[in-house]
Amino acid sequence: MTAPIPKRTVGNYFRIVAIEDNTEVRIAGSSSLILAKAGDWNQITLPSSSYKSINATKPVCIAQFVLGLTVISDSTDASMLIIPPYELFNSKYTFATAEYSHPEYFRYEYQVMLVIDSTKKDGLLLDENPLPKTTK
Q1: Which of 2, 9, 46, 128 has the smallest C-beta neighbourhood within 10 Å, fewest atoms?
Q2: pLDDT per residue as tens digits for the range 73-110
Q3: Cα 40 from Cα 61, distance rounded (Å)
Q4: Four-point Cα dihedral 24, 85, 88, 120, nearest 10
């Protein structure tokens, strides 16, 4: 499942890499594609506001690339995220953040993107407490 990057106004691109030969990839709302050989890849661009389910008949690696300040007008650094399959989701996570910010240049702003089945949202906890009902 892909999710929008907070405060982004342009799309991101996703690279889907086949782990095995003859892998069929289905992206919600699009036609399927075949990656014939292990290592073959396809790149797609999605709008910044879209959520998409990506399914494959065999294992794939999906990387999300966030364009940086030199490419677009958003004031963000370029980055890459690996989108894990839901089978690898865990029930507990620990987040570590850098402590240093330089007041003359900028202050770090931390954000967490969570993807969860909507039927399990009420069981989502932060520091052992339920999230506010206003959480999207």
Answers
A1: 128
A2: 555 667 888 998 888 888 888 888 777 666 676 666 77
A3: 11
A4: -120
Instruction: State the residue range of the domain holding 69.
Output: 12-130
**CA angle (16, 46, 52) in 5-degree steps:** 75
Cα separation, 120 vs 127, in Å, equals: 17
Euclidean distance between CA atoms 12 and 47, whole angstroms: 7
- Give the separation between CA 133 and CA 91, rounded to whole angstroms: 20
Residue in the block written with tokens 């982004």: 8
Is position 135 within any domain?
no
- Overall number of domains in the chain: 1
Q: Is the pLDDT of residue 122 over 90?
A: no
